[in-house]
Sequence to fold (328 residues):
Amino acid sequence: MVKASPKGRTTVSFYKYWNMEDPHTFRDELYLKMDEVGVMGRIYVAKEGVNAQISVPDENIEAFRENLYSFSFLDGCRLNFAVQDEGMSFYKLKVKVRKKIVADGLNDNAFDVTDIGVHVDAARFNELTSQNNTVLIDMRNHYESEVGHFDGAILPDADTFREELPMVEEMIKGKEDQNIVMYCTGGIRCEKASAYFKSRGFQNVFQLEGGIIKYARDVKSSGLENKFKGKNFVFDERLGERISDEIIAECHQCGKQCDDHTNCNNEGCNLLFIQCDECKAKYENCCSTDCQEIIKLPEDEQKKIRQENVRGRLIYKKGRWPKDLKND
Fold:
């Protein structure tokens, strides 16, 4: 229905850390408010706040803003509008209550989560990252930074944010007196990470306000140098939005220059990997010849195989996938 509709849609993200006493009641109220104006997407609600990636009908942008801002703690919260967008990012609305709005594995009672790093805009970010006394850190996962990142950034080889935090702490040990500048997609991961690293003795902590999304818009509108190379990975149907013309990644099957992510066509695999158009046609959107053979089986046989091979979040471990499951 979304694809067939002539009405345009816009992809938007927002987050807000807030001490919420009754996330279940808020979840129900938010769902009704969003559904009323045709919002689709994925929203996580927890006692610590709300995190959302959604698409909104263009004709309802103002109505959406009014409905969202009717919640006092969300009034005026920053909305990140996608850089490269045709509105085909989400096809249903899900609002879920979770323990945390971002799985970080941290004990929030062990440090002051409100004592965050200094937010910097695109101009200040460019200035800081040009200084020798600055350590720039990509606070995203390896499959995100593989297709796009800032020049000179530390790129942790992590599958999850939870795994990345102690990894980064080890990487920057001994650099407590330097400028620690962090960035992520929209800012939410840096919000928590900056408070954590400050509690660990790093006092000169900075975070890119609005993340890569806002940075890309700001450098374009202000005529600033764009220091981001490649694509910004996004967790929706688009899987990425182009920030610069550079293609810095390779097809995982043939090695050709490519930065297009795809999910393996075998539902029992669903591996997220980079695949060029030629390999997409050759392997029928599959990650391997094994998966290509499976999709040709009758559905009941495919279902049986899926039940016997539960991979869960291994779909994101493309950089560490066992050699025998990849093509030569």
About this structure: The radius of gyration is 21 Å. The CA atoms of residues 10 and 87 lie 5 Å apart. The chain is about 30% helix and 20% strand. Residues 261-325 form one domain.
